[in-house]
Amino acid sequence: MNRVQLKRSTILKMALGGGGGGGSSEALLPPEEEEEAEGGLASRREAPFVVRALRIATVVSLYWFISITMVFLNKYLLGSPSLRLDAPLFVTFFQCLVTALLCKGLSLLAACSPLDFPSVRLDLKASRSVLPLSLVFIGMITFNNLCLKHVGVAFYNVGRSLTTVFNVLLSYLLLKQTTSLYAILACGTIIGGFWLGIDQEGAEGTLSWSGIIFGILASLCVSLNAIYTKKVLPAVDGSIWRLTFYNNVNACVLFLPLILLSNDYYTIYNFDKLQSFNFWGMMTLSGVFGFAIGYVTGLQIKFTSPLTHNVSGTAKACAQTVLAVCYYEETKSFLWWTSNMMVLGGSFAYTWVKGMEMKQVQAESLPKANEKNDAGV
To answer: What range(s) does the Sugar phosphate transporter domain occupy (predicted)?
Structure first.
C-alpha cells in the first residue's frame, strides 16, 4: 500500500504544478515518473471490464471538460473585448488566492470528516524552502496567461508547444541525461510545426510576437517547474497538496508588489464591472478550475497510465483547437492546420518513443533482478 501511495505522489508532481490555473499540467511527464506510475495498473485489474471502461471514460471526459473550459474561461477574463479587463497579473493573483483558500478549506473539512486531505498550515520555514520553486511557478502561470492573452485559443497550443523540447534540453544541461535520436527527431517535428505556425499566423495578420515570447517563456518555466518540484518536495514531507498550498501562498504575497507597481492596480481601481457579481463569479470559477485541473490530471493518470494521459492530452489539444476555430468562426489555411498537426504529431511521437524506451528498460532490468534473486541477494 505504501508503494502505491508513493507512486501516486510521484505522478502528481507534474499534475499539480499548474496550481492557480496556469495549465502546466498539460506537460509531458518525465520518463522516470512514467516508470513509477505503471504499477498503478495492477490495482485496477480486479474490476470488471465494463466498470473499468466507464470509469476511464468518465475520468477522461472530466479532464477534457475542465481543461478546455479553463482555457476558454481564462481567455475571456484576459482578452475579452466585452469585458475589457487588461489586468493579467491581478487575474493570476486571484486564481492563486482561490487555490490557496481551497487547499486550506479542504484541510479544515478533512479534520472533521472522512475526506482524505492532508493538514496544511502556514510554516515560514517551509515557505522559504519552497520559495525557489514558487518563483518558477509564478513565471509559469504568469507567462501562460500572458501567452493566452495575446494569442488566440486556436493558436495557444502551438504558442506554448516547446515544453517537450525544453524538457530534453534541460535534462541534458542540468541532469546530464541523454536523449535518443528518435526522441530528438520528434522534438524537431515540434519545432518545425512551431515555426510554421508562426509563419502562418504572420501570413494571416494575427501574429503576436509578445504572445510567442510569452509562450516560449511559459514552456521553459513548465520544464523548470518539474525539475524544481523534485528538489523542493522533501521540504513539505512529500505532500503534493502542501506544496500546492505553499506555492500559491508565496505567489499571492509576491504578486502584490508586482500588481502595485504595474498598471493592473489602476486598471482594477477604475474597472467598471468591479461591483458585478457575474465578474467575480467568473473570476472565482477560473480559480476553481485551475485547482481542479491538477486533481483531474492526477485522476486520469491514476485510472489509465502516464502514456495514455499524454495521448489524451494531445487529442484534447486537437479538439480544443477545432472548437476554438469553430467558436470564434475563424478560417485557417491548410499550412496553418499542418503546423498544428506537426506539433501534435511530434508530441505523440515523443510520447510513443519514450514509452517504447521505458518498456525496453523494464525488459532488460527484469532478468537482472531475477539473477539477483536466484543468487540470494
So the answer is: 55-350
Q: How many CA atoms lie within 13 A of 319 on its CB side?
A: 13
Question: How many residues make up the chain in this entry?
Answer: 377
Residue 311: predicted pLDDT: 83
Helix-then-strand count for the chain, H and E: 14, 0
Question: Quick check: helix, strand or coil at residue 127?
Answer: helix
Closest by CA to 221, choosing from 353, 86, 8, 26, is: 26
Torsions phi, psi for 199 (to 5 deg): -60, -45
H-helix or E-strand spanning residue 137: helix 124-150
Q: In which residue ranges of the chain is pLDDT below 50?
A: 1-44, 377
- The confidence score (pLDDT) of residue 344 equals 92
Q: Smallest Cα–Cα separation from 249: which of 372, 129, 113, 82?
A: 129
**Quick one: pLDDT at residue 9?**
46
Q: Nine-digit cell at 221?
A: 518555466
Burial class (CB in 10 A: 0-12, 13-18, 19+), 148: buried
User: What is the structure's pLDDT at 51?
Assistant: 85
User: Alpha helices, DSSP H only, in 160-276?
Assistant: 163-175, 181-203, 209-232, 240-261, 264-269
pLDDT of residue 96: 95
Single out the residue of 23, 107, 39, 106 nearest to residue 317, CA to CA: 23
Q: Which residues of 31-61 are buried (b: 16+ CB within 10 A; e: fewer)?
A: bebbbbbbebeeeeeeeeeeeeeeebeebbe
- Residue 19 in grid coordinates: 496550481
- % the chain with pLDDT above 70: 84
CA distance 352 to 191: 18
Can you tell me the distance from the alpha carbon of 322 to that of 337, in angstroms, rounded to the nearest whole number?
Answer: 10
**Cβ neighbours of residue 176 under 8 Å, at least 6 residues apart?**
none
CA count, 13 A, side-chain hemisphere, 129: 17
pTM: 0.82
What is the residue extent of each domain of the chain? 2-368
**Residue recorded with cell 479542504:** 106
